[in-house]
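Re: that chain you flagged

S.,

Sorry for the slow reply, it's been a week of failed gels. I finally had a moment to sit down with the sequence you sent. For the record, here it is as I used it:
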Amino acid sequence: MKIGLVGVGRWGLKILNTIMEIDDVTISCVTSSRKTIYDFIPKGCLVYQKWDEMIKHPDLDGIIISTPPSSHYEIAKSSMLKGIPVLVEKPLTLSTKEAFDLKVISNERKTILMTEFTQVYNPKFTQLKKSLNLIGEISHVRTEASNFGPIRNDTPVLWDWGSHELSILITLLEEVPEYIKANKTKENLNNYGEEASWDIYCNFKNQITSVSRISNIDHKKRKVSVIGKKGMIVLDDFGKSPLQFYEGLKNQESPIQIGREINIESKEKPLYKALINFFNCIRNKEIRHWSLDLGVKVTELLAQCSKNY
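Prediction finished late last night. Pasting the structure tokens below so you have them in one place:
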């Protein structure tokens, strides 16, 4: 299978390295302005300076887009119009109209478009969802995601980090929030890009509420806490025991005591699983993928938050 990669920045390089671990998939070409790009790509891989030249590369089986989201629309649209399957890094776009347009093009051209929501492919998250019967009826979900950086001048923190959190919530609860709002709780001013912390609040059916705290100016963290009638489950992605059940505990803050550890069946990396899913869809000649609808909905929700903030 021959794949083209548009963008070899921080995340694009991770995509590149992950694909190079897969025996039956080849990176045939990349679009990159890295001066050291030949230190990273496999032998025989062609380097293009412009994406519109790269998508003319012969016999491409798929294209992966890892560029600033403002460019996603044009690259994905042009690729699908050529009949090339596309995987695009989250967020799908920064515009609701563009997101809907891409969905229409995908449907009309019968060409698959996937949004790469990495955390939804996390085996720890998959096991969390399988274990929800332990806590009974859900009342509240709390997610936390932070790190010192990255600082971007092309992607707002709300969109960069909020995309993951909303994809987690919607996938976990299997429904879209009826109400959403976002508040910026902290901000550092600089000339490089946005440094900020945000809280996102959602209301779902059956009086389920959620709060997601995101930041690129805080200690590295990725947690999901789900509270139900019988207790709570906490996923601490960087913890030694990453998934634990606390029977009878209904505290909305992360507990300090040790819970009952839940075994995680798979050890595969989330990005690896997402890429394998894309490649299998190409092999099976699939023309629809659930992540496109999720990408459109997340874009719509974040646009709503931005408008009302």
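What I noticed first: The helical segments are 10-19, 51-54, 72-81, 96-109, 123-130, 157-173, 270-283, 290-308.

Talk soon,
D.
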